[in-house]
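Please fill in the sequence for the structure shown.

STRUCTURE ENCODING:
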């Protein structure tokens, strides 16, 4: 349970720093207007120094996905081996090859985590440059600082080495191409994103297809990259490039709507397990299409960011393999599009949501990954605490999805 206590302590400290930052927001925004390499300073202080402290000074070894998936996949990729056939890979085919390069410089699981901090820094820089709310420099830099201090990005990037923020990079670049009216380039970026990240990226196909000015060119861009890779993978791996990523969808995890409703329905809920994810996928697509067709905002980059937040916050609710790590998928565009710092209670709510989301996965895992089929199981205090976190988190994901959809429909 040490990692749970460590993440809890870090989340608590970051929460206090965020409250202090909110209290001094006006002063900080004024100071940040002064020239300086602020983006680098934020990354250095809030990512590189913690990395050095945890993994170099304390000699901590990365665990979980970094040790069990990312590192073995990258090692095989560096040897020129084929994903899926030569190594189990629940990620996209290019994923391991991106990580293989840094490992040539420093062959360590720690390299994977350091690489993820650089990937996140790239995502932050690209998002900062977009200036979704047409704000002055100081306000945008405050958003950047606020994001870097949030527990979800800090814990899942520095302490867990997660790759989720990379999806936003490709969505953002495809969104820029859509805004410029270049549907072919949008399709190329989307195709590269699907080949470089993980299967869940495909959920963005529907909003991008509807947003693209020339849908034939968008499809052409996707196929130019995707079709040769698919042919090669089928030749070398058969259907493994499909079945291995899809296996992740079969596992029951928490928190999501299924895990929250299970105590009320009981084991009868298992009768629908085979169709739940398909039903959730259909619901996500229907809501997304309905929102795209009725949205009023003409700001395409902002629309892409809000649709991205909507898709992945809703997916986290309706997919039975969803976990609160998914908050890391959309936290960056959420901070730069949805947060109004004048509404301090909403900001405080986001801070507490981040604290809960950062702690829950490790806590759930270390108490035995419980799935509550009846209320008798709640005789254990840790189960009661875990289920309370589930209720809070699922409510938070629903609220975020609602806010994103409403912002698209009201052009605010």
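FILLED IN BY: designer on duty
SEQUENCE:
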């Amino acid at each position: 349970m040490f990692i749970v206590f460590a993440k809890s302590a870090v989340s608590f400290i970051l929460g206090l720093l965020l409250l202090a930052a909110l209290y001094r927001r006006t002063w900080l925004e004024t100071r940040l207007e002064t020239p300086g390499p602020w983006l680098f300073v934020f990354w250095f202080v809030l990512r590189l120094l913690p990395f050095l402290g945890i993994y170099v000074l304390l000699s901590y070894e990365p665990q979980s996905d970094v040790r069990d998936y990312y590192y073995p996949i990258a090692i095989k990729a560096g040897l020129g081996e084929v994903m899926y056939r030569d190594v189990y890979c629940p990620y996209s085919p290019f994923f391991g090859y991106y990580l293989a390069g840094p490992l040539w410089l420093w062959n360590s699981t720690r390299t994977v985590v350091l690489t993820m901090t650089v990937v996140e820094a790239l995502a932050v820089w690209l998002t900062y440059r977009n200036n979704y709310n047409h704000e002055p420099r100081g306000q945008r830099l405050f958003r950047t600082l606020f994001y870097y201090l949030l527990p979800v990005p800090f814990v899942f990037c520095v302490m867990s080495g997660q790759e989720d923020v990379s999806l936003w990079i490709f969505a953002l670049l495809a969104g820029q191409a859509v805004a410029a009216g270049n549907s072919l380039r949008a399709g190329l970026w989307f195709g590269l994103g699907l080949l470089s990240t993980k299967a869940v990226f495909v959920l963005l196909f529907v909003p991008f297809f509807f947003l693209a000015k020339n849908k034939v060119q968008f499809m052409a861009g996707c196929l130019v990259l995707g079709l040769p890779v698919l042919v090669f993978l089928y030749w070398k791996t058969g259907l493994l490039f499909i079945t291995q990523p899809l296996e992740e969808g079969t596992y029951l995890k928490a928190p999501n709507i299924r895990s929250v409703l299970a105590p009320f329905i009981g084991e009868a809920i298992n009768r629908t397990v085979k169709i739940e994810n398909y039903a959730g996928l259909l619901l996500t697509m229907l809501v997304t299409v309905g929102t795209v067709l009725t949205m009023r905002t003409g700001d395409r980059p902002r629309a892409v960011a809000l649709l991205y937040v909507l898709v992945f916050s809703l997916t986290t609710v309706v997919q039975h393999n969803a976990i609160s790590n998914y908050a890391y998928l959309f936290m960056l565009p959420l901070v730069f599009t949805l947060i109004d710092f004048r509404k301090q209670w909403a900001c405080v709510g986001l801070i507490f949501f981040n604290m809960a989301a950062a702690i829950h996965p490790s806590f759930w895992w270390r108490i035995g990954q419980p799935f509550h089929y009846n209320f008798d199981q709640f005789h254990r205090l840790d189960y009661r605490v875990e289920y309370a976190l589930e209720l809070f988190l699922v409510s938070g994901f629903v609220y975020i999805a609602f806010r994103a959809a409403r912002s698209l429909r009201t052009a605010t």
